[in-house]
Design a protein that fits this description.
Layout lengths: L7 E2 L2 E4 L3 H12 L4 E5 L10 E4 L2 E4 L16 H10 L5 E3 L4 E6 L4 E6 L10 H12 L7 H16 L3 H6 L5 H8 L3 H12 L11 H10 L5 E3 L8 H13 L3 E4 L1 E9 L2 E9 L4 E5 L3 E3 L13
Helix pairs in contact: 1-2, 1-9, 3-4, 3-7, 4-7
């Protein structure tokens, strides 16, 4: 592919308009790079964002089945990224005592006490008991046993140093739990809790990154308070606004088909829209926020 006349040229192309991709693009655009973000969906945000329906902002996570409604989060890395991107995140402290969790197939919702998601809040064993009752459908006679096993898991993970955690980044949480946790109820509770942090799909979560996350989480949880959009879209929209304000482009509704390679070097991205129009976007750098196991969809293994 030697400089196609129909191609659009950029300094970098970002494949995927979830938070990671948008933050990357916004940071580069703020540094003067000409960037394009390509995503098959018509709206930025992917799993992390939200859509408006009849005056309500519905988190996209509901489409995955774990469905967190009143999502609060710790803005550690998000705030750092916003500062580097030169965008303003409007956040306010989460004042609620619980988070509403929806089980969509069963059509039910329940209130999860907020302090069960805080690393250092109250008695750890009591927290684990609460998680067992909430997520695990664990009989009262088994609650203590399962809670102690879960607490032991988190204690073991907390003892792993940063160097070892980085070595564990390629290890999937589901695989590690199947090898290290005997009780299936304990595994189920841990995975369900991760969905509410949110690490989703939890079984595919990087074990090493989860360890590092728990080590560096601090402060109090917050919720978005954006002046244009609601829900978690309030975290997404500022980065998207930052991209376009600095001359970047959002190619939404364009499905990335292939990351182009030539002589083992990246050359760009081929994308397809809903009308089956094909567009070549050229750039010497391509960043993707796709999970690793999806990359063979775009590049040879």
């Amino acid at each position: 592919m030697k400089g196609s006349s129909d191609a659009r040229r950029f300094d970098a192309i970002v494949v995927g308009a979830a938070l990671g991709g948008l933050a990357s693009a916004a940071i580069l655009a703020n540094r003067g790079w000409r960037v394009a973000v390509v995503d098959a969906l018509p709206q930025v945000g992917a799993r992390v964002g939200a859509v408006e329906s009849d005056g309500y902002w519905i988190g996209w996570g509901h489409r995955d089945g774990h469905g967190i409604g009143d999502l609060a989060f710790f803005p550690v890395h998000t705030s750092v990224a916003a500062k580097q991107a030169g965008v303003e995140l409007r956040l306010r402290p989460f004042m609620g005592s619980s988070l509403r969790v929806h089980w969509l197939p069963e059509g039910r919702a329940a209130e999860l006490p907020a302090d069960t998601l805080l690393p250092e809040s109250g008695d750890p064993l009591d927290q684990m008991r609460e998680l067992c009752r909430f997520f695990g459908d664990v009989g009262e006679a088994d609650v203590d046993r399962v809670a102690r096993e879960i607490l032991d898991v988190f204690t073991r993970l907390a003892a792993i140093d940063d160097e070892e955690a980085w070595r564990l980044v390629p290890v999937r949480m589901g695989d590690w739990l199947s090898r290290n946790v005997v009780d299936p109820a304990a595994r189920r509770v841990i995975l369900q809790q991760l969905e509410c942090m949110p690490f989703t799909p939890s079984s595919e979560t990087s074990l090493g990154r989860f360890i590092l996350h728990r080590r560096h989480v601090h402060g109090e949880p917050v919720v978005p308070d954006d002046y244009e959009v609601g829900g978690m879209q309030g975290v997404i929209a500022p980065f998207a606004r930052g991209i376009t304000a600095n001359g970047g482009e959002l190619w939404l509704g364009w499905k990335p088909l292939e990351i182009l390679l030539e002589d083992d070097e990246v050359r760009g991205v081929v994308a397809l829209d809903s009308a089956s129009l094909v567009q070549v976007l050229e750039a010497p750098v391509v960043i993707t926020d796709y999970p690793g196991w999806r990359l063979p969809e775009l590049v040879p293994e």
